[in-house]
Amino acid sequence: MSSSSELRRRVGREPGQEGGDKATSTPGTHTGSSSRARNLCLVLLCGLVVCALALYTYVSLQGPLPPGTHRLLPFLPLRGGAGPGGAAKQPRGAPQPAALRDPAWLAARAHPLSVCAPKINMTSKESYSLWAQPKGRMGEQLKAEIAHLAERHGANPFPPHVTVLGDIEKPRAEMEALMEQLAARTKKYRINFTDVTRGSIFYQCVYLLVAKDPGTMAAAQAAREVFGRTTPPYMPHLSLLYSDMEDGERLKVVDYEIGRLYGENSSYDTLMVENGYDVDSISLWYTPTDDTGLRSWCLVGEYELQG
Ligand SMILES: *[C@@H]1O[C@H](CO)[C@@H](O)[C@H](O)[C@H]1NC(C)=O
Ligand SMILES: *[C@@H]1O[C@H](CO)[C@@H](O)[C@H](O)[C@H]1NC(C)=O
Ligand SMILES: *[C@@H]1O[C@H](CO)[C@@H](O)[C@H](O)[C@H]1NC(C)=O
Question: Which parts of this chain are annotated as the region Disordered (predicted)?
Answer without folding.
Answer: 1-34
